[in-house]
Each structure stands twice: as C-alpha cells, then as structure tokens.
Amino acid sequence: MYVPSSVRARLINWMHTTKFSAHPRTSRTIALISRRFWWPSLHKDVKEFVLACPVCARNKSSHLPLSGLLQPLPIPKRPWSHIAIDFVTGLPVSNGMTTIFTVVDRFSKACHLIPLRKLPTSFQTAQLLVKHIFKLHGIPQEILSDRGPQFTAHVWKHFCAPLEAKVCLSSGYHPQSNEQTEHMNQELESTLRCLTSTNPTDWSQFLHWVEYAHNSHVSSATGLSSFEVSLGYQPPLFPADEKEITVTSVQHHIRRCCSIWRNTVTALNRSSEQNRRFADRRRRPAPDYTPGQLVWLSTRNIPLKSMTIKVISLFHWPLQDRVYHQSYCCPVTSAFFPPNPPHVPRLADQACPDQLAVASVRAPAAPPQEIDGHPAFTVRRIVDSR
After folding, report:
1. What confidence tens digit (pLDDT) does each residue in 264-293 have?
2. How far apart are CA 7 and CA 22, in angstroms?
3. Mean pLDDT over residues 327-347, rounded?
4. Neighbouring-strand partners of residue 111
5. How far is CA 70 from CA 85, 280, 311, 345, in A?
6. Rounded to an integer, what distance in angstroms lies between the CA atom of residue 246 and that of residue 345?
7. 26-34 helix and 42-52 helix, angle to the nearest 10 degrees
8. Which domains, and CATH codes, for the chain?
9. Residues of the signal sequence (predicted)?
C-alpha cells in the first residue's frame, strides 16, 4: 500500500514506538513497515527517524568505537620538570600508615613513594612535595594530578602559582590522562602483594625497597632505568660488583647526561606514537561540539535516584564551553561536584532540530537527581529576597 507524504511521519512514529514493536533498530523498523506499506524514500525516512528518536538515543548503548582519538601528553625535556602525583588508599594499617603518596617523574619514570597516616589536605600535600621532592629535584614546571579535593582547592592553586608550576588536572572520570601514575599504582600494589603475602600489615617496611627496585628496572619506553636517565649512571646491585672507574671531567659527565636525555626524548616520542596508533585503532575522531549544542551525557558517574543502575538512562544537557581539547563543560557537572568536565567519550550526539521534527517525539525529562541522598533542584530564577 502506497503511503502519501502527509502521513508518513505518523506511520513511522506509530510503527517504531508502539508496544508491539518496542523501538526496534532501523533495519527492523523498515522490515515492519515494508510488510504492508511502501513509498520511494522509505529507507531514508526511517533511518532519519530512528537516528532522531530521543528514546532510543537515551536508553540504548552505542556499539560504535569510542569517540576521541588519543591525545598524548607533551614529552618533557629533562628529568623532574613534569611530575604526576596520586594517592594509593585502602591499605591495611602498617605502623600507623594507611596511605601512599606516589610521585612519578614523567621523563625518567622515576618515582618516590611516601607513606602517610591518612589522606592529606591541600596544605599538607604541598608540604610533602617541598619536603620530599623539591629539596631533591627542584621545583617542577608542571604538576599533573586527578581531580581529588586536594588538587581542586584554592590552597593548592595558590601554592603552585608563586612557584610558576602549572597545575594540570585530568579529565573527569578519565584516568588515562594520568596514566603513568595509575600504572605506577597498579605496579606498586601488585609488588606489595608479592612481598607481603604472608603478612600484609608489613607493607610499610618494604616500601623503600619497592621504590629502589622500580627505579632500578629498565623502562620499556626508554630502554634505560630511571637511575640512568635521572642520575646518569646505574647504581650497582652489589657493591662488590662495582668496577673501579677513573674519574672523568665534569664536562664529560654533562655531555653524557645530555646525550642520555636526547636519546630518552627520542625513545619516549617513539613509544608515545606507538601507543597512540595502537589506541586509535579502537577509537574514532571526536565530534566537534559547539557551545549550546544538545548532547547526550552518560550518567555512569552521576548520582541519580533509581532502583537499579540497569535502568538508568542517558539524558541531554546543552554544552557551555570547551575546556581543553576533548573535554567539555556541562551545566550538570556543577550541580553535583566541583567543576569536572566530562571527556568526549562520555558524550553522544543529539539529533539536530530538523531530525527531531521528523521524529515527532519530544525528549523525555531528565531523571531525578540526588546529592548525598537528597533531591537536587535547578534554580530557574530568584523571585524575591529579604
């Protein structure tokens, strides 16, 4: 049966949204309609309708590759000019210590592991860096961290500003931004499990040896140990193995260190490019969203009132601005936690206004939102004050 243009949208809407069809994908919707109806642009119209259907976009998971190609961090030019910091928590009490402060040099891959009694404040974190890092390696140009409360507080920013140390925060719920520290934490935890399998509460006694072992091992990225890259030599495993070496001039040692650093930069660039190519095989270029555009934002890391996570949907919010490369600022972020721009894989395209008109379906309202178990409300306007 031929369908005139005046009723095509209504027919597609009914065949796609009715309970006996239950929002099927494009091919199945076409198959349902084709059993009784036909018109020249059937396939095109159905495809546009399904793409614009807000119910499908909101509730169905995407099988497309992650959007956003890998954006490697710039390679430093010398040791300890760019550091990454993080905390390892949830450890058993060992001599009063429950937390480890990890500091990683992004150039040499060297690390310092500092045991702590509890998570420090922003001020205490700054004191730890001065006491354990700055006195040994100088003030870094850049400090990379996640978006923990220690690093988003004004105290932390005021501490770094006079030192001219750039504060870099990873994207919201995107630990790949601080991948070196995350990898270091995984290696640290697995090593401690090996050394303390019989008595896990002794981990603090082995922490210094774990740090020495890590800095002695050869890095797969540079082909050198952290000691060689940062100090210019490899400490002997046993003093008896050290051969007597004639003292060279200071200039010769400097030239040797500079040569090691140049080779390290080349190796890091090569390793970064290999990692980028490997990661991009399972990714696609990020869409170029514009401020005010409607997008779907994943609710995976947003507290919502729901019976179970299995039925939580995606909902759309207008974008406000681009923060950095593939991170965007959405109004929903400020309602739940400090500014935490979502990374582009957590966003999905919303249909354009023309497609929404074709779909003839209004987007459902956002689900109830909660903060610490209490309902969260958005203030539209202030009607009065006193």
Report:
1. 778 777 777 777 777 777 777 766 766 666
2. 21
3. 52
4. 104
5. 21, 6, 31, 11
6. 56
7. 140
8. 5-52 (no CATH), 82-280 (3.30.420.10), 294-375 (no CATH)
9. none
